Amino acid sequence: MNILEMQRLADMREDNMASMVIQNFMENEAFFGVAQFIEVGGSFSYGWNEEKTLPTASNRAINSNYTASNGETKPMQEALKVCGGVVSFDRLAVQQLGNDIVMKKQEAQIKAIRLKILNDFFNGSSLTDPLAFDGLKSFIPTTTAGRVDRGYVVNNGGAALSRVKLDELIANTDVDGSTVMFADKTVPFFMRQYGDTLITFDKNEFGVPVARYGDIPIITVDRNNVNSKILGFGESGSTSSLFVANMDIDKVAMLSGAGGMLSSPTVASGSQDAHQLDWLLAVALQGQYNAGRIYNFTAATMVA
Fold first, then answer.
1. CA–CA separation, 236 vs 181, rounded Å?
2. Which of 175-189, 266-280, 288-302 comes out lowest in average pLDDT?
3. SS3 for the chain, per residue?
4. Tell me, what's the pLDDT at 302?
5. Which of 56, 75, 151, 192 could form a disulfide with 140 if both were Cys (CB 3.0 to 4.6 A apart)?
6. Inter-residue contact 6 to 260 (CB < 8 Å)
7. Which residues are within 8 A (CB) of 117 and not within 5 positions of it... i.e. 6 or more apart?
8. How confident is the model at residue 263 (pLDDT cuts 50, 70, 90)?
């Protein structure tokens, strides 16, 4: 399901706070417009089987038989982790300053949750933080170039982003209408400096400009909830990574707890009201050919 269907789930159970938060996510981050969500119920993890080897296919002679083989699959598992926060406000402050203070605090908390989820989609690491879900950098590390267990890796060599190497990444990723490129917000401008026709721009349903590299939309990201660059040039040697991912539900998807985001009114203390927001989430990167990473490129004009 997509983010609109997540909002409908919140509306059906009359969870107005969760519905408002999801609307904010859609309007402010292009990522949530392309993400697909697999709803997981009855468990705190999601399992699936991936193709390891195919059954045998061959030729045979007349009056001979095929050698039967069922092929082999590999069981995969991802644990859902809780992400959210609390919107709290002093009742006396509301009485004195009006509902504007509530709205401003809500907007700030919603922004923090939104940027935390966005950051963890790329930078989440359950090894660093056991409470976090794993993101694309954890699934596609830079220890080996070429085909790896969960994708394809290209080393750009510590120089300006190479068009040849970027095309190598795209050529080794299964690309269709659900494929997008994720990069720091400065990267499309470095690409455009290479040639004005390399990057085109259109707008999404909310009127937000979206850059395209050929037919592939570039979803740009900026800063996270602690004001650090999500895909900035903070990797080794002041370099960055970008990702190409097929955001189809059976390829690269978000896992969501049953019902999506939940909100619950609570009392934080005797003087404050609070609203707690919780969302069980994880990333499912399914298969070897649906995502890839190019890393080790600098903040400079793209080269051939």
1. 21
2. 266-280
3. CCHHHHHHHHHHCCCHHHHHHHHHHHHHCHHHHHCCEEEECCCCEEEEEEEEECCCCCCCCCCCCCCCCCCEEEEEEEECEEEEEEEEEEHHHHHHHCCHHHHHHHHHHHHHHHHHHHHHHHHCCCCCCCCCCCCHHHHCCCCCCEEECCEEEEEEEEEEEEHHHHHHHHHCCCCCCCEEEEEECCHHHHHHHHCCCCEEEEECCCCCEEEEECCEEEEEECECCCCCECCCCCECCCEEEEEEEECCCCCEEEEEECCCCEEEEEECCCCEEEEEEEEEEEEEECCCCCEEEEEEEEEEEEEC
4. 97
5. 151
6. yes
7. 83, 279, 281
8. confident
Domain ranges of the chain: 3-48+76-132+254-283, 143-251+287-303
For residue 272, the one-letter residue type is Q
* Cβ burial 162-187 (10 Å sphere, 16+ → b, else e): bbebbebbbebbbbeebbbbbbbbbb
Q: 147: which residues sit within 8 A by CB, 6+ positions away? A: 172, 288
d(CA 272, CA 179): 45
Which of 113, 91, 82 has its CA nearest to residue 17? 113
d(CA 152, CA 286): 13
**φ/ψ (deg, to 5) at 151:** 170, -150
- Token digits of residue 255: 């896992």
Instruction: Say what the pTM is.
Output: 0.91
- pLDDT category of residue 83 using cuts at 50, 70 and 90: very high
Task: Read off the pLDDT of residues 10-56 as tens digits, 9 standing for 90 and up.
Answer: 888 888 888 888 888 888 888 998 999 999 999 999 999 988 888 88
Domain 3-48+76-132+254-283: CATH class, spelled out = alpha beta
Average pLDDT for residues 145-162, to the nearest whole number? 95
